[in-house]
Design the sequence.
């Protein structure tokens, strides 16, 4: 049952020799067979590449105001030489923003922030959620009741509204927005982990560890927790998508990243009243958010199917 | 069934208590001096001392919480500082906008989501299926605020002077008659009666009001105003519903009794509608219930973009303006609505699937 250690024996094409294939190898293979998951991985790969190389591929400094540097106006439309923009004008493929900065460079740098937001909030929520869920499922009784009722209360608020309220208490800013989104997403992970713990708590191999003198810590983290790994990976990948979306929404409302930080939500928020006059300033940041969220959603769905043992027969 | 309902209602009580505790704590934790937030920066210490004593803010926290509980249970939500109105009245004014918006969004998402999901399951792996799934995955990943702005750009600016033009903000155009339906009917009610409040509440939902008072001009105008926000807000639930409808339909279509139905010689239409579709509805109930809840969160963004003063927008404004009474009440109302919704989902599940009741 301990899935990470499980080795699955498969027959090769001739059915003659047995070779062992780990669960992760099977998962990878199944993942690559799903077109949508591959699309997700490709988009994600491109985004990670952009995030890592932003300082080299961005044509301008994302927070540098171009007044006096170049002959460009505030909210100027995109100028692409390949599409007939005069060669004597400086090229800005996504135009100029309201503060006379290069929109394309800001968008590239924004990738860093979005990925960072996704990974950091989900890591935070997974750590806290795992501990709470594990304690809840393992000890049961009043510990379980206390923790899970608290989680129910957190789940009783629409997540974005609760995040807004928490940011208001903590004060606007990127760090506080991350913390708020992290807190709001804890219950999902706590529930996943608790369910996994409950499903194996009474299994023979757990009793065996106990009989051999294993303490609660060993039983919980070495014997029980590996079972929660697969649902956590799936939930985490999908959770990153939600976290990026919520963080962008908070920044859009002015509660997250503050100017001049190149963050997609706040770029969109600060130009939203100009949507009729300078649509390019609203279009590109939103598209970037959507593509990033889409990548994680596709990958998460793909992982869920690939890791589901019930779908094993579909892999070969 | 009755026992099950009672048990589930009792289980919601600790959650409701927790909600009140959280909203109480949040309002107390909002940084800044409540006296100066409410009376203004210029309030003197003497004025503030009196204010704090009057509002009971000098009492121990547990006592304050007790008072707050009492107020919430008795329905006395205090006044809004910002609008200088009782919170109750503000709630009655703002809630209809959000209710109308949420239900229209849900309506749009069901109307499009379910047929798309069913069709793509029936035509599994066809181009319809592939397109639907691409579209559903994109829809789930859509930032509501961006979609709203883009829709406004396309339908209010690019399609200007065409029959497809739609207004980018507001709920009705100025000059369109918007009399409450009960006045059109000739009803007169005593000022301040709860019946009047209730009828006013209903009449503030424009579509309902237009239908009840046979005001077709208002119906047309209000619908035009509602389309863009409802589509923007409804896109994520629409995509979720399409996906869920597809996967649960696929599961049902693979079962033996469907093969039996086909073997009996039933038409494809009968098999799909009578045998498969009804049984694939169960998981959809959960998605629909949960979507309605998340619509309330999305309402903050949609209402901001389309200039609608509903629950979400008012709550957001109240938070930034430190309008305690409004923040507490609106949050509690939304959360209680959420809990009630979850309860309804559970109950409908138990109704649809008798096995759940017996556990």
Sequence:
């Amino acid at each position: 049952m301990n899935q990470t250690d499980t080795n699955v024996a498969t027959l090769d094409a001739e059915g003659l020799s047995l070779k062992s294939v780990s669960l992760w190898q099977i998962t990878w293979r199944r993942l690559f067979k799903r077109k949508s998951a591959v699309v997700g991985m490709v988009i994600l790969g491109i985004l990670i590449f952009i995030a890592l190389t932003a300082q080299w591929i961005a044509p301008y400094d994302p927070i540098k105001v171009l007044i006096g540097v170049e002959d460009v106006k505030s909210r100027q439309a995109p100028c692409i030489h390949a599409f007939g923009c005069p060669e004597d004008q400086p090229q800005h493929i996504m135009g100029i923003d309201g503060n006379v900065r290069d929109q394309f460079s800001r968008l590239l740098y924004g990738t860093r922030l979005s990925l960072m937001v996704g990974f950091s909030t989900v890591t935070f929520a997974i750590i806290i959620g795992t501990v709470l869920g594990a304690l809840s499922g393992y000890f049961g009784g009043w510990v379980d009741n206390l923790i899970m009722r608290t989680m129910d209360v957190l789940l009783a608020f629409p997540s974005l509204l609760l995040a807004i309220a928490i940011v208001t208490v903590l004060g606007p800013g990127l760090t506080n927005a991350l913390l708020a989104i992290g807190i709001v997403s804890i219950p999902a992970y706590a529930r996943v982990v608790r369910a996994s713990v409950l499903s194996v708590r009474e299994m023979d191999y757990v009793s065996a560890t106990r009989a051999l003198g294993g303490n609660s810590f060993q039983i919980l983290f070495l014997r029980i927790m590996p079972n929660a790994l697969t649902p956590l990976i799936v939930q985490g990948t999908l959770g990153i998508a939600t976290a990026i979306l919520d963080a962008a929404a908070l920044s859009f409302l002015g509660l997250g990243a503050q100017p001049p930080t190149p963050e997609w939500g706040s770029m969109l928020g600060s130009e939203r009243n100009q949507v009729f006059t300078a649509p390019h300033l609203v279009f590109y940041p939103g598209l970037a958010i959507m593509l990033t969220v889409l990548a994680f959603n596709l990958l998460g769905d793909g992982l869920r199917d690939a890791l589901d043992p019930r779908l094993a027969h579909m892999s070969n | 069934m009755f026992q099950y309902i009672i048990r589930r209602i009792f289980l919601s009580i600790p959650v409701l208590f927790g909600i009140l505790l959280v909203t109480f704590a949040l309002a107390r934790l909002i940084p800044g001096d409540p006296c100066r937030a409410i009376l203004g920066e210029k309030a003197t210490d003497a004025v503030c001392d009196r204010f704090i004593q009057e509002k009971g803010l000098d009492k121990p926290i547990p006592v304050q919480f007790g008072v707050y509980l009492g107020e919430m249970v008795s329905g006395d939500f205090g006044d809004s500082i910002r609008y200088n109105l009782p919170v109750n009245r503000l709630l009655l004014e703002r809630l209809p906008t959000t209710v109308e918006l949420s239900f229209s969004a849900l309506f749009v998402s069901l109307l499009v989501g379910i047929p798309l999901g069913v069709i793509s399951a029936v035509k599994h792996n066809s181009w319809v299926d592939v397109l639907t799934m691409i579209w559903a995955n994109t829809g789930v990943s859509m930032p509501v605020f961006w979609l709203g702005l883009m829709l406004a750009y396309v339908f209010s600016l690019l399609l200007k002077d065409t029959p497809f033009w739609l207004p980018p903000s507001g709920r009705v155009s100025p000059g369109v008659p918007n009399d409450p339906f009960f006045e059109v009917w000739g009803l007169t009610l005593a000022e301040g009666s709860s019946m009047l409040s209730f009828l006013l509440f209903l009449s503030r939902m424009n579509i309902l009001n237009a239908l009840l008072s046979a005001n077709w001009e208002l119906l047309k105008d209000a619908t035009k105003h509602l389309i863009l926000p409802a589509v923007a807000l409804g896109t994520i639930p629409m995509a979720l519903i399409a996906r869920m409808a597809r996967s649960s339909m696929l599961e049902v279509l693979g079962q033996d009794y469907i093969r039996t139905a086909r073997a009996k010689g039933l038409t494809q239409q009968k098999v799909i509608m009578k045998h498969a579709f009804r049984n694939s509805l169960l998981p959809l109930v959960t998605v629909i219930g949960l979507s309605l809840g998340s619509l309330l969160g999305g309402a903050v963004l949609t209402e901001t973009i389309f200039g609608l003063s509903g629950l979400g927008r008012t709550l957001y404004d109240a938070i930034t303006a430190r309008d305690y009474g409004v923040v507490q009440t609106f949050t509690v109302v939304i959360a209680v609505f959420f809990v009630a919704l979850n309860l309804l989902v559970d109950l409908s599940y138990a109704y649809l699937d008798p096995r759940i009741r017996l556990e």
Q: What stands out?
A: Chain B touches chain A through 48 residues (CB under 8 Å). Chain B has 17 helices and two strands. The longest strand of chain B covers residues 79-80.
